[in-house]
Design brief:
13 helices; alpha/beta; Metallo-beta-lactamase, Chain A; globular; Rossmann fold; binds zinc ion
Length: 440
């Protein structure tokens, strides 16, 4: 079995891996490096594959030379852009290979294709897969979609069954015994694979590897948010979180409605993800309304004055401080909103730990504070397993080979130390760079 790291091993972003057995191979994930697109006004739908490559926004597909003709299927773990966002740019590289993903991921992918200028209806053979399903692919692969909790619906850990053993692709998940609108991680299934000694190798998440305490359940964030919103009577509330975090958005909508506020969701990506969630009946908007286009957002904001703020609750894009997001434009006075000392900005997210994100987030918090409004942090739980959770996971699945990813080199080194501390040998842990291949 040969594992080729195409993207996501030197950075958090543009995830893509190839697993090859015999004369066949499969691709897992087609991710975008979102950070590379921040701060510039790129029109992604109009950019060519090579333009995207030149700014480092998609995995270096030239690394597929020599493998491309072997690809018999493409699998996507979930709908976050760093896993599916390069799909429309890369799909032309795999003619004839079916694309497999869960329903919500497929919904997101379909909407990306609609935006794509060069798409013209010629998408791949897209096949929707439900949890627990096993997909036969070529002569050498059976790929199982194992339910896993994350900060987006329909996330899967992929178990690639081959005659040489099982390879697990386990990025972006958490143990969550009490999720909100999401699924529990199917620990029993992972335990079965581990107990049978089947797991030949695993790619796993190191985003929060430095943390020992288990990642809290989404229900914990729900309770914190509900308490906070209930305590802000008579004041303005602007909440921001990831537009793809449907469970968190449901919590915010419900909490706002309970306080008899008119809930308004603002932002283009908010509108896109809400459309996907509505199509699959994953969200109950109640009386909330969603506004995506700039002009309508402006019109909606004009109706909110310092005197009637307490009748509304805004949910906006911009939780990472992304330039051009609704919260960024509000905080810079580009959109018509007057911040006052009665305003409360609820950050229901934490910055993804990359230098650009951390800097953008710091800037937007400062800008809001300088306008007199209150910034509330900590209303969030990570979508990623902590280092302590990873220790537990590795003890459950008992892999023979470990490939930490999704963190950059410092986190990968930490992951190796942790793995050794729970009994794995140094030679079992493989630190790959983008472009490297490993035979196991
Ligand atoms: Zn994710």
């Amino acid at each position: 079995m040969e594992i080729t790291a195409i993207g996501g091993f030197d950075e958090i972003g543009k995830n893509m891996t190839v697993v090859a057995v015999g004369d066949e191979a499969i691709v897992i994930d087609l991710g975008l490096h979102v950070e590379r697109l921040m701060g510039e006004d790129y029109d992604i739908a109009r950019m060519s594959r090579s333009e995207m490559l030149s700014i480092g926004a998609i995995p270096d597909y030239r690394r597929l030379d020599g493998i491309k003709q072997k690809i018999v299927g493409v699998f996507v773990s979930h709908g976050h852009l760093d896993h599916v966002g390069a799909g429309t740019k890369l799909m032309g590289l795999f003619p004839g290979a079916p694309f497999y993903m869960t329903p919500f991921t497929a919904e997101i992918f379909k909407r990306q294709m609609e935006d794509e200028v060069k798409y013209k209806g010629k998408g791949p053979d897209l096949r929707t897969v439900t949890y627990g399903s096993k997909v036969s692919c070529g002569k050498n692969f059976v790929v199982e979609f194992i339910a896993a909790a994350h900060s987006i619906p329909d996330h899967a850990i992929l178990a690639v069954h081959t005659h040489e053993g099982v390879f697990l692709y386990a990025l972006d998940w958490r143990f969550d015994p009490t999720p909100v609108l999401s699924t529990k991680t199917n620990i029993n299934r992972l335990q079965q694979l581990g107990d049978k000694g089947l797991v030949k190798g695993v790619i796993y998440d190191t985003t929060r590897i430095e943390r020992d305490e288990p990642t809290q359940s989404e229900s914990w964030a729900k309770q914190k948010i509900e308490e906070m919103i209930a305590g802000l009577k008579g004041e303005g509330i602007i909440a921001t979180t990831f537009a793809s975090h449907i469970g968190r958005l449901q919590t915010l909508i419900d909490a706002g409605e309970r306080q008899k506020r008119k809930v308004l969701l603002l932002g283009r990506s908010m509108e896109k993800y809400m459309d996907s969630a509505k199509a699959l009946k994953l969200i109950n908007l109640r009386r909330a309304s969603v506004w995506g286009r700039s002009k309508t957002v402006e019109a909606v904001l004009r109706k909110i004055t310092p005197n009637n703020k307490s009748e509304f609750m805004l949910i906006t894009t911009g939780n990472q401080g992304e330039p051009g997001s609704i919260l960024d434009r509000m905080s810079r006075g580009v959109l018509p909103y007057t911040f006052t000392r009665d305003d409360n900005i609820l950050f229901c997210s934490e910055a993804i730990p990359t230098p650009v994100n951390l800097a953008c987030r710091k800037e937007i918090e400062g800008s809001i504070r300088s306008r007199g409004a209150h910034v509330h942090l900590g209303l969030h739980v990570s979508g990623h397993a902590s280092g302590g959770d990873i220790d537990r996971f590795l003890k459950i699945v008992k892999p023979k080979n470990l490939i930490p990813a999704h963190g950059g080199i410092e986190k990968l080194i930490r992951a190796r130390k942790r793995a050794e501390a729970v009994g794995f040998r140094e030679e079992q842990v493989h630190l790959l760079h983008d472009g490297e291949a490993l035979s196991i």
